[in-house]
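Question (not urgent): is this output format expected?
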Amino acid sequence: MKQITVHRAKTELSRLLKEVALGEQVVLLRGTEPVALLVPYRAKGRKRRFGRFKGRLRIGEDFDAPLPPEMAQAFGL
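Got this back:
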């Protein structure tokens, strides 16, 4: 997640909006304090971009392994 000061964001707004439209999130700082978060707007009917998290997420080898008995029981399985 990118962090940028409000002063700098004013001069680079067009570029920041392009990055946000591509899925990047930007935190606006006043000094060192976060004051706002720029996130992509999802209008109804807008298509999602697949592969957005490619290389950023990892699923463990045991993802679909059976749950331990005590945990399965807690979920009523």
